[in-house]
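Issue 218. Parser rejects a valid record. Input:
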Amino acid sequence: MPDIKHFDPDAALEAVIRLFWKQGIAATGVQDVVDATGLNRSSLYATFGGKRRLYLTALKRYDERCSTPVLGQLAEDGRGLLAVTDFFSALIEARCSGEYARWGCMISNAHVGAENADPDIRAVLERQHRTLRASMVASLAVARSKGQLAPDTDLEAAGELLALLAHGVNLRSRAGADPAELHRAVTTAVTGLGVPRK
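Output the parser choked on:
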């Protein structure tokens, strides 16, 4: 007779995402997962595997649900530098206020954690970074077509700069940075990419 699950795996995974996102993998024990989900260890292991596999599943789900849709919107936004500015404004707002304030980003947090030594986890991080950079480059290409960029701007290098800035905002917000300081840094970076004022 097949084993019947008496819980919602998706709801359990959402609880796990919040746990790993807030605490990180190193500070989270299996008992923390049990407490957060209300499941017993055997159900967790049977459904998700060990802690490493559970973390990897949670990281992928976070990327799919939290990161990819936002970056897709940025890549398709036709406003150029204004789209980039609005992206960062929304990012700072999300990271510094509301339910998940000061949690940072699960992806950025993983970049600085020991878990990034795991090849499967690193593959998720690298894929997300490529998507982040490509979204920035797409917006910068629109900005160039609208005459918003300095003519000698290297789109790939500028896209990488903005991607790194996004990770920096995530990590600094987790450390308690003042939102006004983050906004000023973003304004300086984006303004520096624009057409010089005469």
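Fixed in the parser; the record now loads. The chain has a mean pLDDT of 92.
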